[in-house]
Structure formats: structure tokens, C-alpha cells
From TrEMBL:
Keywords (A to Z) from UniProt: Cell wall biogenesis/degradation, Glycosyltransferase, Golgi apparatus, Membrane, Transferase, Transmembrane, Transmembrane helix
Species of origin: Ilex paraguariensis (yerba mate)
Gene3D superfamilies tied to this protein: Spore Coat Polysaccharide Biosynthesis Protein SpsA, Chain A
Topology with respect to the bilayer: Multi-pass membrane protein
Subcellular location field: Golgi apparatus membrane
CC annotations in GO: Golgi membrane
UniProt xrefs under Pfam families: Glyco_trans_2_3
Catalytic reaction equation(s): GDP-mannose + (glucomannan)n = GDP + (glucomannan)n+1
Protein's recorded name: glucomannan 4-beta-mannosyltransferase
Gene Ontology BP annotations: cell wall organization
Cleavable signal peptide: none
EC code: 2.4.1.32
Residue stretches in coiled coil: none
Amino acid sequence: MRNLVLRKPEVRVNDDITSSLSYAWQHIRVPVIVPLLTIAIHICAVMSIMLFVERVYMAIVIICVKLLGKKRYTKYKLDALKEDLEHNKSYPMVLIQIPMYNEKEVYKLSIGASCGLSWPSDRLIVQVLDDSTNEVLRALVELECRKWIEKGVNVKYETRNNRNGYKAGALREGLQKQYVKDCEFVVIFDADFQPEEDFLWRTIPYLLENPELGLVQARWKFGNAYDNEMSLDYHFSVEQEVGSSTCQFFGFNGTAGVWRIQAVNDAGGWKDRTTVEDMDLAVRASLKGWRFVFVGDLAVKNELPSTFKAYRFQQHRWSCGPANLFRKMTKEIILCEGLCYLTQRVSVWKKFQVIYAFFFVRKIIAHWVTFFFYCVVIPASILVPEVQLPKPIAIYIPAAITTLNALCTPRWYHSTYNKKKFC
């Protein structure tokens, strides 16, 4: 009797919670979880196949382009165009825009590289668009501009009292300056880009030769290529090369490109409605009938994000921005007629290519499959034995996509070797 009085009551709260959760899981697994997971697997299977077909198509095109040696920019006789330009002395007025924001480490390099471009000094304007909030840094940037002015370079240092529109707002206000009215082309370099001296000689002739060209895009060359180069190298070596070689749409990368100012104005100028203002402008210009060319053998040096925080911010912008732009522009793309200065209509095929291939598959499905299928659906299917996960969808197709990405990227082995050597 005494033992019964002194014994502490047993606490079975944890056992009760575990039992309740187990009971609830057993009752909702078959009627609720299994159907939902099955539907998710079917949806992800369709999206994986769509992505696989797109990767195979681009692999076939890029292999043919490289084997035949017929990249689109090679059809232009660049040397003859340069000789004709030098003989006639008819140099167009070129504007260089360098948007920057608190760029303490690289502002001297970017300004120096742009001011050192080989082009007649009286036909070149270097416009430094400084949105820095650090007053000391602003003074240093302005001092650097004055140094180049003393050397005979036409440098314009422009600041704003606000950051409305961020980069798009700075570029838009820069084009509204009175001295820009005489400029025919505008070149954009982000603050961490350092072009080679002959950049203008290897881009401007294309625009002079073909009045339908609105943009000449160069590729990027990475100073810290061992970090995260492979995905970006695929973007340049395959996606943009395929788009340019097949005369299809490809996006502007926001820097290291030359725009015909008339094409920018015809498209409605810079807009800040999304975080991918460069892609926004490219889509609108393409819908107006302007054509783009990607020059794969012209590279501009820059630095990739070296920290995880910077890399995460970059990837968030590149993944969410296109989806937001797609949501806002789908109706505009479908209803666009394409009548403009060039008097060209946008074909149904081009609209389909922009909506389906460029936006839906490459910018939405590629990110959605990577996260939802591989990080959510596949792990969840392990907990539900009633759901059958097809091996071709879960293993073979992802492996094939990865293999195609690697084989179509010529620097994949070089990057892997450098990583091993670096470690």
C-alpha cells in the first residue's frame, strides 16, 4: 500500500503524441498523400521530359554549328568592315555607360578600361553613372574621372539624389542627357567588367553593316573561373550561341553588350518593373523586330561572386526575375504585332519560341524541376512505399541532362582540373 502511494504517476505525453501522429499518418497516407504524390510525379515527369528535349535540341544545334564552323557572326567580314571604316573616317558617336553603386574595389579598373578603348576620342563619351551612397567613395570616383578628363578622354560623371529604378533608372536617366542625342550606339559595362582595348572595333562594325541589328552581345571571361563557372559557361557557349546561330531570341546579359540607341528607344527604353531589366528590354526590342547577334570569340573579363551570400543573391535574381517578367509580359507577347521602324511583324513561331523555350522551359521549368522534384517529391516518395518512382525519370533523364550540359561546355574539364589542382 505504501509503495502505491509513493510511486510517481507515469507521464505518457510523448507516447500519446507519437501514437497520434502515427495514427493520423496511417489514415491520410493512402487516401490523401499517395494520390497527391502520384500527380506530382507525373507533372514532374512531363517537365523533366520537356527539359530533356530542349537540352537535346540545343546539343544537336551546337554540335552542328561547331562542326560546320558557321557561327552567325562569322558570316560578317570583320576585317573588311574595319578597313572600310578607317578608310572613310566615318566613325559613329559611341556612348559608354558604367553604372556603379559603392564599387570601392573595382571602380578604377572599370573606368580605366573603358577610357582606354581604342576609338577616336572625339567620337567617344564615357558616362559614369554613380549611385553610391558613400560620399567619400563618390569623391574618389569623381577624382578618377577628372584624371581621365585631363588625359583628353570625354568623361561625364553623373550622380542622382535618389536611386529610383536602381540600375534601370540610372541607365534611363543617362540616355536622357543632352550630349547623348548625337550618339548612335551605347555600350554598357558593369563596374566589375574590364573590356579589352579593341572591344569597339570588334562590335560596332556588325551594327554598321546590318541596320536590322539592335544588339551585339559579347561573352564573359571569368577572373575566378574555379568558383561557379560551368553553369554560366553553358549559358554563353550553348544557350546564347544556339539562339544567335538559329536567328532566335536570346536575352541581353545586362553588360558587355552594344545597343543601337534607336532600338532602345523603339522598345520603350529602360523599365524597372522587374529585377531583370536587361531581359525586359531585350524581349521588347525583339518584339519590335530588332535582331541580336552573339559574338562568342569576344570575351570581357569580370569577377564571379566569391561568397555564398553574393552567389545566392545573384541566383535569386536570375531565377525569380524571369518568372516575374514572364507573368507580366505573356499577354503582351501574344498580342504583339511587331510593327515598328523596321516594318516587320513578329511571327507566331517567334512568339512560341520566346514563351515556350526561352521563358517556360529554360527560366521556369529548369528551376522548378531542380527544386520541387529533386528536393521535395523524390525524398517524399521514399516515405510512401505505395508510390512507384520510375527510374528513367528519377535517374536516367537527370543524368543525361547533366552529361549534355558537361559535354556541350568545352571548359568543363578545364574547370574540374583547376579545382583539383587548387585543392
